């Protein structure tokens, strides 16, 4: 191991001792490759066995930054690249796999089951070798994602762990697909059991913002030392150990009385949950806790009723500060598209989907008319995999629509957050579209805002998606106006998504466009459908 011996903040070895330690049988060389510096601050890692020059590349998410570094060493005969290794499936870690494979042929992809192009998922505690000198152990740490794996590696003299988005220096990942109990297990049972001198290589450089949160909870010497080091160093990967993390990382100090006092909890899992909530609500730039009073502005919509009172504003603010809103916080994607009424496909309505994942085969989305805080909840959509869709009865399948045209045409977008570089968000959006393109959706709208209803009147309306050009007059103008509002280009998205494979759409889906007449389609009962299914398909136009 060439790294960190001279840069450990807690001590400095005499040069003589350092030279002697480096002379010991050393096999592991680690090269950090920063990606998207200044925005998401990711790391890819090239790990080489010095004895054989066999090497693996960990999380090469951005091939334009990673591939040239790897290729130069491959061409020079310095390394023999043997595998791509991933810590989890998120696009900013595994999203570069296919492009790397296009340049470096026939490599296995070792990682969680949901990683792009994965070929092998080792079991928990399963080991393999890099060359002859490095032993690798897979440590399953589900929470940030359910397929998260930390990779513990050791040679004869050094121990390291690549933690992805499970453990950061002074922090941990968000619980996107897991629970506080799972993160507690990951950090305080699985990773905490590693030798204290195991050096930590996380997936992002987040130390500066993490230490601000630590300092708001703990004012100890280890925290102060980390703070000083972070202020004076741009990179902290490999500079700290599991033992160090136990000293200052509050997510690994759940039994500390000061940490428990700060959270108001004593049970370890409750403390973990409270810490994550606190961290989520802190602005890393000024350590100010953000309590959003969403109704403080005198915002209006077309809903019937009186304006929101100050009392309601205060109640909303208190609820936001004190309640968990678990299902809402599980929402992980905002998708925007247009729906048509199955009973009248010439009626089109804008749909802002806020989606969460129940599992890898089922998603559920709340649909609002706008993305504004005072938006009206107008419907719901369920999305399922093609595998589940095929298990449905024929009459049920006819209630579902495909997403292929929406994805491939650029009609379906994932509006980006303010301040994030466009290129990074486009990569994330495109990866999301790779998943959505093969899903089937079942959608009902309850509030017919397109006809001016002031309340959700009548029965639910089954909705469908567009499946081709020219299906509604004026659609291109609608998309153009939407693009202008969100500052995107559907045409550019269509070009960028050209590589996405177009799955075959089941013949029973998208029935509103497949029958000879759309109007006749809304009147006819599908073969085998019950009277209830027919009424849902037809919808209700009367407001009473």
From TrEMBL:
Transmembrane segments: none
Presence of the UniProt keyword Acetylation in the record: no
One Pfam family matching this protein: DUF1264
Pathway: Secondary metabolite metabolism; methylglyoxal degradation; (R)-lactate from methylglyoxal: step 2/2
Reactions mediated catalytically: an S-(2-hydroxyacyl)glutathione + H2O = a 2-hydroxy carboxylate + glutathione + H(+)
Superkingdom assignment: Eukaryota
Ranges for region Disordered: 486-544
InterPro entries assigned: Clx_II_MBL (IPR035680), HAGH_C (IPR032282), Metallo-B-lactamas (IPR001279), OBAP-like (IPR010686), RibonucZ/Hydroxyglut_hydro (IPR036866)
One GO molecular-function entry: hydroxyacylglutathione hydrolase activity
Signal peptide: none
Enzyme category, top tier: hydrolase
EC number in record: 3.1.2.6
SMART domains given in the database record: Lactamase_B (SM00849)
Keywords annotated in UniProt: Hydrolase, Metal-binding, Zinc
Cofactor(s) for this UniProt protein: Zn(2+)
Domain Metallo-beta-lactamase: 41-204
Biased composition (Polar residues): 524-534
Protein family per UniProt: Belongs to the metallo-beta-lactamase superfamily. Glyoxalase II family. Belongs to the OBAP family.
Name under which the protein is recorded: hydroxyacylglutathione hydrolase
């Amino acid at each position: 191991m060439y790294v960190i011996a001279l840069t450990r903040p807690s001590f400095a070895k005499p040069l003589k001792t350092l030279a002697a330690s480096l002379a010991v049988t050393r096999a592991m060389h680690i090269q950090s490759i920063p990606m998207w510096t200044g925005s998401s601050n990711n790391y890819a890692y090239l790990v080489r066995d010095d004895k054989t020059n066999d090497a693996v590349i960990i999380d090469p998410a951005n091939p334009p930054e990673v591939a040239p570094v790897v290729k130069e060493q491959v061409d020079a005969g310095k390394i023999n690249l043997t595998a791509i290794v991933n810590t989890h499936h998120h696009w900013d870690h595994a999203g570069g796999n296919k492009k790397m494979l296009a340049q470096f042929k026939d490599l296995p992809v070792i990682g969680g089951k949901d990683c792009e192009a994965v070929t092998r998922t080792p079991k928990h505690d399963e080991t393999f070798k890099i060359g002859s000198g490095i032993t690798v152990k897979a440590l399953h740490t589900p929470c940030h994602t359910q397929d998260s794996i930390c990779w513990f590696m050791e040679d004869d003299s050094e121990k390291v762990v690549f933690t992805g988005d499970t453990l950061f220096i002074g922090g941990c990942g968000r619980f996107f697909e897991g629970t506080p109990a799972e993160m507690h297990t990951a950090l305080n049972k699985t990773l905490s059991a590693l030798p204290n001198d195991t050096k930590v290589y996380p997936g992002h450089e987040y130390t500066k913002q993490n230490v601000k949160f630590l300092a708001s909870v703990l004012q100890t010497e280890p925290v102060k030392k980390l703070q000083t080091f972070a202020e004076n160093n741009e990179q902290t990967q490999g500079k700290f150990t599991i033992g160090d993390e136990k000293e200052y990382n509050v997510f690994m100090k759940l039994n500390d009385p000061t940490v428990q006092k700060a959270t108001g909890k004593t049970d370890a899992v409750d403390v973990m949950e409270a810490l994550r909530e606190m961290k989520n609500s802190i602005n890393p730039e000024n350590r100010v806790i953000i309590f959003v009073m969403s109704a403080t502005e005198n915002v209006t919509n077309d809903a019937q009723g009186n304006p929101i009172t100050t009392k309601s504003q205060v109640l909303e603010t208190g609820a936001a500060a004190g309640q968990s809103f678990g299902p809402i916080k599980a929402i992980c994607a905002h998708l925007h598209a247009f729906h048509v009424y199955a009973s009248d496909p010439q009626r089109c309505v804008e749909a802002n989907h806020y989606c969460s994942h129940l599992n890898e085969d089922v998603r559920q989305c709340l649909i609002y008319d706008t993305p504004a805080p005072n938006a009206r909840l107008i419907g719901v959509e369920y999305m399922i995999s093609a595998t589940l869709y095929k298990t449905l009865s024929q009459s049920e399948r006819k209630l579902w629509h495909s997403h292929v045209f929406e994805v491939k045409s650029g009609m379906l977008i994932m509006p980006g957050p303010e301040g994030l570089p466009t290129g990074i968000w486009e990569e994330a959006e495109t990866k999301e579209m790779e998943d959505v393109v093969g899903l089937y959706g079942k959608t009902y709208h309850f509030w017919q805002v397109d006809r001016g209803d002031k309340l959700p009147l009548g029965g639910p309306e089954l909705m469908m998606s567009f499946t081709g050009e020219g299906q509604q007059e004026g659609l291109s103008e609608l998309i153009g106006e939407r693009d202008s509002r969100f500052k995107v280009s559907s045409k550019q998205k269509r070009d960028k998504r050209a590589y996405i494979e177009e799955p075959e759409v089941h013949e029973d889906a998208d029935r509103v466009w497949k029958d000879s007449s759309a109007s006749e389609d809304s009147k006819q009962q599908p073969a085998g459908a019950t009277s209830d299914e027919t009424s849902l398909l037809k919808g209700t136009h009367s407001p009473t």
